[in-house]
Amino acid sequence: MGHRFAIRVYYEDTDMAGIVYHANYLKYIERARSDWVRATGVDQNALRLQQGAVFVVRRVEADYLAPARFDDVLEVRTRVRLVTGVRLVLAQSVERGGASLFEAIVTLVCLGEAGQPMRLPANIRRITG
């Protein structure tokens, strides 16, 4: 099932043809990931302050399948594909009316205060979706 996050396409999101500019899909899935993390009960500010850990995107594989347009109502779906000791892999899609417009596989890792890689915190490793 996963997490669902609604987004409306605003004029500022589009190019001269009224089509969503390609980089904005990455913003849409980032907002949805932030909302998903919050919904799992993880406080990213507390994680940073108490454990010195921050999430960073390590890799994104993206497929643009069809255009979204000004004033469309979109839904970003996020689901867990894999959780290991050091990485979290999510499948995300941007859909309109059930039709997939954009799909991405996003790999997240944790970095410590000095930018060094670190294991995912235990509460994150337990997340399954």
Secondary structure elements and pairings:
Elements: E1 3-8, H1 22-39, H2 44-51, E2 54-64, E3 73-83, E4 88-96, E5 99-111, E6 117-118, H3 122-125
Antiparallel strand pairs: 1-3, 2-5, 3-4, 4-5, 5-6
Radius of gyration: 16 Å
Superfamily (CATH H level) name: Hotdog Thioesterase
**Residue runs with pLDDT of under 50 for 5 or more positions:** none
Structural class: alpha+beta
Shape: elongated
Reported for the largest beta sheet, the result is: 6 strands, antiparallel
- Give the tally of structural domains: 1
Mean pLDDT: 93
Q: From the coordinates shown, what is the CATH architecture?
A: Roll
**N-to-C span:** 8 Å
- The level of helicity is 10-25%
How much β-strand is present in the residues? Answer: 35-45%
**What is the helix/strand order?**
EHHEEEEEH
In the CATH scheme, what's the topology name? Thiol Ester Dehydrase, Chain A
Q: Could you please describe the fold and organization of this structure?
A:
This protein has 129 residues and is α+β, with helices and mostly antiparallel strands. It has one domain (3-125): Roll (Thiol Ester Dehydrase, Chain A), CATH 3.10.129.10. The chain is built from three helices and six strands, in the order βααβββββα. Strands 1, 2, 3, 4, 5 and 6 form a six-stranded antiparallel β-sheet that branches. A hairpin with a 5-residue loop joins strand 5 and strand 6 (117-118). It is elongated and about 45 Å long.
Quick summary:
The chain is an alpha+beta fold and 129 residues long. The protein has three helices and six strands.
